[in-house]
Amino acid sequence: MPMTKEERAAYMKKYRQANKERIANQKKKYREENLERIANQKKKYREENPEKVHETETKHNWIRKALICEDIDSLYCHYIDAKNCDECGVEFGEWGDGTGRYKCMDHSHITGKFRNFLCHNCNTRRGEYNL
Length: 131
What we know:
Number of strands: 2
CATH topology: His-Me finger endonuclease fold
Number of domains: 1
Helix content: 55-70%
Strand order of the largest sheet: 1-2
Shape: elongated
Low-confidence stretches: none
Order of helices and strands: HHHHHEEH
């Protein structure tokens, strides 16, 4: 009689725990033997899914920098939709365009709580007087 889905999951979990070192060695050997293939797969994925990659990397950076927010997914949607600085109203530019108008996450460096989206110029000014 075949295993149920739950029985199979429990069996596989027990197997992985009992064979951690063996599985790790197999994965390491595969990665070493397929470095170029893996790199090409990653490159292809990044080229085919730039929006998803941007979303994932952006959220990861926010979390890594200890940004506190109740719903990171809705915050990301708000981030994408934000077109103007909440402080001065200037339209956001691109990072590296020399204007200082690129979009920044304004947050408290003490509490980590998100406040709003500002241009770099306003974010820098605010940081001088409002942590």
